[in-house]
Amino acid sequence: MAAKRRDPVPQGHYDARIVRSQFVGNRLDLDFEIIGGPHDGRVITRKLYLHSPDANTKRRDISDLERICRAVGVLVPKDSRDLHNIPMVVHIGVTGRRNALLGYSCKPRPMSPAAAPPAAAAGLAGPSIVRLSDVEPEQVRWLWPSRIATGKLTLVAGDPGLGKSFLTLDIAARVSTGAGWPDAPNVPFEPGDVVLLSAEDDVADTIRPRLDAAGADVARIVAINAVRAPDKQGKVSARPVDLSQDVEYVEAAIGQLAKPKLVVVDPISAYMGETDSHNNAETRAMLAKLADLASRRQVAVVCVSHLNKGAGRSAVYRVTGSLGFVAAARTVWSVSRDEHDHERRLMLPIKNNLARDTDGLAYSLYASEGAVTPRVAWEDETVAMIADDVLNAGEDESSKTAVEQAAEWLRELLAVGPVKPADVIARARDAGYSESTVQRAKRRAGVESVAHRDDDNKMTGWAWRLREPDSQVVS
After folding, report:
1. Which of 25, 57, 226, 241 would bridge with 52, disulfide CB 3.0–4.6 Å?
2. Where in the chain is the domain with CATH 3.40.50.300?
3. Is the dihedral of CA 114, 118, 122, 126 positive or negative?
4. Are the CB atoms for 57 and 51 separated by under 8 Å?
5. What is the tens place of the pLDDT at every residue in 192-237?
6. Average pLDDT of every residue of the chain
């Protein structure tokens, strides 16, 4: 009598491990064994056609193998046996009377019995929760006290050409030697290792000379130029780092260092792959991976960004891209030029969620006699300035002047009678004024919108005119 077919495992997420693997012709068979719960020991096989003549099947199964490798933390296995007996979470589906493996992810950190949800008792994956009474309070750990926190994201934003890269390399140099910080130069600390991701500067002719000028211990600093990973055809080749999918490779680099303390990403926009930097959800999702890496490895991650042209806006809205950048970072610093001394740079706080408000610092780029490469020269005193005021200082003045000039132009244009808004905007562009400037100048010039009527008193649209005494403003 034929053996009775067992019922399929119910659909859901289960803890599992690979217990057997073998190549059969052009495919790789992997046996996944469920760990724990009522289905403990059940085995489900995934057949991967890695050398299939069908391009779509081959691409799909290679992609699945990559996900399995990430789930077990073995990114480039030398043999399929390297994947054996490492716990992961698998998503199991049901098709007819058969099970299918739909997804793979890293196994969450173990939960205390008091916090474990009912799903855990059944061998299913579930939320990782913690009872706050079981949590030991901890102090924030600082790389640079009150300015750059360990285990957190920090953002440095400024216009191009202000020396942001000089600034981050000066920080990297200090970490590598344990030299005191600019606001505490006589307080040395234990040196550490640094990982650099720098997309805009060459390692040999720019980064190394700047680190040397800053007095760095370059033996403690590594740069990631690219990652070697399988492409869609399964061929391992070098490609640029994409933090939306390559955080594991950055972590692997960190794992090779004796005492990692700092990761610098300069600029963050160059390492986002296909992530839309103006999409809040996509940006937060990508930065969440980076923040988790910082927390897990207890390193400070400093990301460099640029400023937009939003004159008159709060500094938190001046960072290029989505507001998600500022939201994800625990501390945010602006780098700007002192309007009274163009050689002087100001490093001012935009946001600090972890410490009391801190004064800013000032620096300039200085090259000693005979030196080719400049270095950062910090001022001894802190700077009691506000980023909002400094970033908008010159812009508010020029913006105000443009609006006043546009208001004067509007008065002259409308002195002869009403004009349709579309015609006003068209003439304004010819005169060198943008639509937004003219709209802001409208009220200052005393302009109102009125109904435009033809000879039969029939309304044909709207027109702008100079406001008459005691008239009501329509818009």
Report:
1. 57
2. 142-385
3. negative
4. no
5. 999 999 988 999 999 999 999 999 999 999 999 998 877 777 777 8
6. 85
Q: Give, for 454, the enclosing helix (H) or strand (E).
A: none
Q: What is the pLDDT of residues 444-462, one digit of tens each?
A: 888 888 877 777 777 778 8
Q: Collapsing DSSP states into helix, strand and coil, what is residue 38?
A: coil
Residue type, 153: L
* Span 35-57, average pLDDT: 89
Query: Considering the domain 392-466, what is its CATH architecture?
Result: Orthogonal Bundle (1.10)
What percent of the chain clears pLDDT 70, i.e. is strictly above it? 91
Rounded CA-CA distance 386/362 in Å is 13
Q: Which residues of 20-54 are buried (b: 16+ CB within 10 A; e: fewer)?
A: ebeeeeebbebbbbbbbbebeebebebebbeebee
35 and 47 in contact (C-beta within 8 Å)? Answer: no
Give the residue among 15, 60, 55 at the shortest CA–CA distance from 38: 15
Q: Do residues 113 and 37 make contact, with C-beta atoms less than 8 angstroms apart?
A: no
Q: Which fold has domain 142-385?
A: Rossmann fold (3.40.50)
DSSP output for 393-405:
HHHHHHHHHHHHH
Check: CB of residue 310 under 8 Å from CB of residue 318: yes
Report the 3 state secondary structure along 339-395: CCEEEEEEEEEEEECCCCCCCEEEEEEECCCCCCCCEEEECCCCECCCHHHHHHHHH
Residue 473 binned pLDDT confidence (cut-offs 50, 70, 90): very low
Q: What span, in angstroms and rounded, lies between the C-alpha atoms of 48 and 66?
A: 11
- 142 forms beta bridges with 149
Is the bond preceding residue 267 a cis peptide, omega within 30 degrees? yes
Sorted by sequence, the CB contacts under 8 Å of residue 136 that are 6+ apart come out as: none
CATH 1.10.10.10 residue spans of the chain: 392-466
How far is 223 from 237, CA to CA, in rounded Å? 18
Cα–Cα nearest to 13, from 110, 107, 128: 107
State whether residue 410 is helix, strand or coil. helix
**Helix, strand, coil content of the chain in percent (nearest 5):** 30, 30, 40
Distance CA(168)–CA(262), nearest Å, equals: 10
**Cα gap 139→249, rounded to integer Å:** 29
CB of 284 within 8 A of CB of 292? no
